[in-house]
Specification:
This protein is mainly α and 63 residues long. It has one domain. It is 83% helix and 0% strand.
Length: 63
Amino acid sequence: MGEALQTWEMVVLGAIVIALLFFAVPGLRQAARRSRSAEKDWPGFLLPIGAVILFVILLIMIV
């Protein structure tokens, strides 16, 4: 399909991945810390998903 990556391309790609990890990990840690103390809202999560599943089943039955 395509050519193999050259050495400099692999180095640049590795640097981008390390930079993304460097900037993303602290934010992910803070989000995980906040989510532990957040109010749990399972009905607000499950109700829309259930509605979508029922709608897809309805569409399948109509066809």
